Amino acid sequence: MVTTRTPLIAGNWKMNLDHLQAIAFVQKLAWSLKDAKHDHSSVEAAVFPPFTDLRSVQTLLDADGLSLVLGAQDLSAHDSGAYTGEVSGASLAKLDVHYVLVGHSERRTLHAEDDTVVATKVAAAHRNGLVPVICVGETADDLETHGPSAVPVAQLRASLAGVPATAEIVVAYEPVWAIGSGKAATADQAEQVCAALRQALVELVGADRAAATRILYGGSVKSTNIASFLREPNVDGALVGGASLDVDEFARIVRFESHVGV
Ligand code: 13P
């Protein structure tokens, strides 16, 4: 099947880089991609800085007409009100944020976000015109107990409970055991789960939306392994953590097509 899904390379900075560092980073990334004549319509590149950087990065992208896309790392399930410390989808949308991560394993583990919370956040993103990047993935224990795709598929199913089938979403398959471990899944492993996720989407949102939805792989992605993932038919991009903090390395990952035969 010829795919029409534009690959997405997303850099999740996690809790790194202050707003001044963010400006320098994004400027350098934009120059580097421009120098390499990167075609943003063939591979989309997005950065997910901490909340405190978003306004600065937005201003830079806007002032310099840069084609990088802005994402946030989380959002509140609520749109406004007495929720000290939370950031609403409405406020993110005002900052031209396009994507928002929901259900990252670090939020699930460190902030006790269960499938119900994730579903309400996916609904909040959709309500505010943001595209949720729904993160799913199994732990090493889950893998042993349930096999490779049962947990990610169940998480995906639960996360879509509050949105219409027509809602645009991105799915990120991030095996917890591969995050920050330096031990990425193999391309075969990633493809197996991404194919199962797409099959689940057929059932959940219909064949057309399933075929149009991008499914990313995340977990120890680097410039040396990105091409192997993107060769798989059901892997449409990557959610990159550690390697997204090195401008040159992230630019190489975005430009995977130039070394896809490597
Ligand atoms: P690493 O690329 O550092 O393994 O992190 C992956 C991740 O959690 C991206 O969201």
Describe the biggest sheet?
Answer: 8 strands, parallel, barrel
Count of the separate structural domains: 1
Mean pLDDT: 96
CATH topology: TIM Barrel
Following the backbone from N to C, one meets helices and strands in this order, namely: EHEHEHEHHEHHEHHEHEH
User: How many helix segments?
Assistant: 11
The CATH architecture assignment turns out to be: Alpha-Beta Barrel
Query: What structural class do helix, strand and pairing data support?
Result: alpha/beta
**What name goes with the CATH superfamily?**
Aldolase class I
Compose a concise summary of this entry:
By secondary structure, the chain is of the alpha/beta class. It has 11 helices and 8 strands.
Q: How is this structure best described in words?
A:
This protein has 262 residues and is α/β, with parallel strands linked by helices. The chain has a single domain (16-259), classed as Alpha-Beta Barrel (TIM Barrel), CATH 3.20.20.70. Helices cover 41% and strands 14% of the residues. An eight-stranded parallel β-barrel has the order 1-2-3-4-5-6-7-8, surrounded by five helices. Strand 7 (214-218), helix 10 (226-230) and strand 8 (237-240) form a beta-alpha-beta unit. The protein is globular, with a radius of gyration of 17 Å. Bound molecules: 1,3-dihydroxyacetonephosphate (13P). The site of 1,3-dihydroxyacetonephosphate has 14 residues, from strand 8.
